Design the sequence.
């Protein structure tokens, strides 16, 4: 059933976004009274009447400018923890938990409760509001004021006036409030008993069908259509997109909910056809704007991806990702799909030593022409050398070519409007080697031809053996001047300078600050730099006295670790039970792996790295550490890759023991993760 305009506007008007898990048990507010309410929310004027009793209140509201017969009604029961949204025009209701995202969207008083429980509350003074003495309190996140609220003591400390500021840009703020300033005030306050029926669902009201077909303001797919990755479309109930993909590369599926609730599923279809497809993966999207991403390894041999929507409205995009473990010596490819619903702009990293071609193709579901902006920089989004905005019709392409002389390292491509949609493809072929000079070439007499020797190393019997000699003992340290030049070249990804030094006789295993070239390059430079040094004879098997090899050094590479590890593994760097991956495993944010970590660890584990290798002298494993930190995704990942749930550290503690050890100052999401980890480990132990 479709919402009326009034209900939709009030849902959009009271935008109050918060972070954190809130307690379900709140103290009751208020004595029996009625009052008029006036508010300004999300640039909308809202008026109405409020009925309050001990622990419950009801707001009959009208949004200025609405042309419907009656506005929405909000009923809040603080003791039961339930919020009702009644639509008098359709005689339907929707019920959800207090202090949930939907509840914040329609009730500013729940914002005040959130502030009372999560930030500092300070008494400012006392004032008389609507003839009632009130305590005027301020709410602060550190020194930043988030709200002024006036509480009426004789009304059970019910807020009768408030000004809540919008979320600001100050870095100190940890609590994010609504995205517009909110003001509200009660007037014409009258004490008196309130009939309990005021807070009940009226007779004849039916529960709203949240999975009913959504009202479509823009085109949506309602049948089966086919396309090729990268591709994205808005899909309505009964719609399906089938996207052709490259089975040699990993996949990413992005699903974004565009309505209150949607139900969909995706299916991976292998080369042999639909009959051999994996079972469908159901996906339930329970709030508007919710986005879920699914990454699929290339081992699935998927040639088609199907996304079907059973109810609601979903924007789906399917893209092939760059495979870091299939490093292409001859060609680099980066591609994707841009639409404001999922991704309006993206950055592209380029190798300045290679020419680049960026092709943008119009592919909008909503408009015949899309506006695209391309910006290119010599450094990471600094030192801009190119900027152009162009209009691209659907099915047509615009191509941009960049020479190596321009030394472009990063590009930013984006679409300007909400209806724009494009595909992009960035390609970088390898630079062709210079042709050898002949006797007829006048310049040949000036300088004899020089052809660099290329040595491809293979793992040998000594793979994994820690060297007992001085690092690079068979070669000499570079002098101070040469060291400075090489380090600077590594930091800048300047392959030409290092290649020239090697052409002129520099040993590919020369030492830089005591470490061989390959290890320094793995730690500081780009994948192309590492590959070039390997091709010239860099030793993949060397370990220092601490057991660190180039693969270990690559994990500390700040910018290029994923691509560098891929090059090393492809070239034959030893991966076995002694390979330490803890530096890679620690790359997490908010309890989840950073992009690329999951895929890289999966490859290393598949090639022999041991998920149970202790990461400390105490015998702590990756699983124990993740359980201690309340990292839910890593815990699941390690268990899926054979982590030993019964392993014990030096003190006899298991991963479950670590999970039950609370950390000081845990955030709400960490508390949720910890509870989920404990339940998961307990279920695994029971089995």
Sequence:
């Amino acid at each position: 059933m479709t919402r009326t305009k009034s209900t939709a506007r009030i849902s959009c008007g009271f935008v109050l976004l918060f972070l954190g898990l809130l307690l379900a048990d709140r103290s009751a507010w208020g004595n029996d009274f009625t009052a008029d309410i006036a508010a300004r929310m999300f640039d909308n004027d809202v008026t109405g009447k409020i009925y309050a009793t001990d622990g419950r209140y009801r707001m009959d509201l009208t949004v200025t400018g609405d042309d419907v017969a009656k506005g929405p009604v909000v009923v809040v029961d603080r003791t039961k923890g339930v919020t009702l949204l009644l639509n008098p025009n359709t005689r339907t209701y929707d019920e959800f938990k207090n202090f949930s995202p939907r509840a914040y969207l329609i009730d500013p008083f729940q914002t005040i409760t959130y502030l009372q429980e999560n930030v500092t509350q300070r008494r400012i003074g006392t004032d008389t509001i609507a003839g009632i003495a009130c305590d005027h309190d301020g709410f602060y996140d550190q020194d930043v004021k988030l709200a002024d609220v006036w509480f009426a003591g004789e009304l059970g400390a019910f807020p009768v006036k408030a000004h809540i500021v919008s979320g600001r840009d100050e870095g100190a703020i940890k609590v994010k409030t609504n995205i517009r300033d909110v003001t509200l005030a009660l007037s014409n306050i009258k004490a008196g008993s309130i009939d309990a029926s005021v807070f009940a669902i009226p007779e004849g009201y039916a529960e709203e069908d949240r999975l009913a077909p959504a009202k479509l303001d823009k085109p949506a797919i309602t049948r089966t259509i086919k396309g090729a990755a990268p591709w994205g479309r808005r899909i309505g109930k009964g719609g399906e997109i089938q996207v052709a993909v490259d089975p040699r590369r990993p996949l990413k599926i992005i699903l974004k909910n565009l309505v209150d609730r949607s139900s969909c599923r995706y299916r991976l279809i292998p080369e042999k056809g639909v009959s051999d497809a994996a079972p469908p993966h159901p996906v339930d999207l329970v709030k508007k704007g919710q986005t879920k991403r699914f990454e699929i390894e290339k081992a699935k041999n998927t040639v088609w991806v199907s996304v079907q929507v059973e109810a609601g409205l979903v924007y789906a995009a399917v893209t092939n990702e760059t495979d870091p473990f299939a490093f292409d010596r001859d060609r680099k490819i980066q591609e994707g799909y841009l639409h404001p619903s999922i991704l309006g702009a993206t950055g592209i990293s380029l190798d300045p030593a290679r020419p680049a071609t960026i092709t943008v193709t119009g592919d909008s579901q909503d408009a015949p022409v899309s506006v695209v902006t391309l910006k290119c920089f010599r450094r990471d989004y600094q030192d801009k050398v190119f900027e152009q905005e162009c209009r691209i019709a659907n099915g047509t392409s615009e191509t941009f070519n960049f020479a190596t002389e321009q030394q472009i390292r990063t590009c930013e491509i984006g679409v300007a409007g909400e209806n724009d949609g494009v595909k992009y493809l960035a390609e970088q072929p390898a630079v062709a080697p210079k042709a050898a000079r002949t006797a007829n070439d006048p310049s040949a007499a000036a300088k004899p031809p020089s052809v660099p020797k290329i040595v491809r190393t293979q793992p040998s019997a000594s793979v994994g053996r820690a060297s007992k000699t001085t690092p690079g003992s068979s070669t000499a340290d570079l002098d101070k001047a040469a060291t400075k030049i090489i380090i600077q070249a590594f930091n800048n990804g300047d392959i030409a300078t290092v290649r020239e030094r090697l052409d002129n006789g520099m040993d590919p295993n020369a030492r830089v600050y005591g470490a061989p070239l390959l290890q320094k390059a793995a730690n500081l430079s780009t994948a192309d730099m590492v590959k070039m040094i390997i091709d010239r004879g860099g030793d993949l098997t060397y370990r220092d006295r601490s057991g660190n090899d180039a693969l270990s050094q690559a994990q500390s590479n700040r910018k290029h670790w994923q691509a560098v590890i891929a090059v090393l593994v492809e070239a034959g760097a030893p991966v076995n039970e002694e390979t330490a991956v803890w530096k890679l495993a620690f790359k997490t944010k908010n309890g989840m792996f950073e992009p690329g970590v999951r895929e890289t660890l999966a490859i290393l584990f598949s090639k022999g790295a041991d998920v149970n290798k202790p990461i400390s002298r105490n015998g702590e494993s990756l699983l124990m550490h993740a359980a201690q930190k309340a990292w839910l995704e890593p815990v699941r990942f390690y268990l899926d890759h054979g982590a030993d749930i019964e392993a014990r550290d030096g003190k006899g503690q298991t991963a479950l023991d670590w999970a039950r050890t609370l950390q000081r100052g845990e955030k709400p999401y960490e508390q949720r993760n910890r509870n989920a980890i404990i339940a998961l480990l307990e279920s695994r132990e029971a089995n």
In short: The two ends are 45 Å apart (CA to CA).
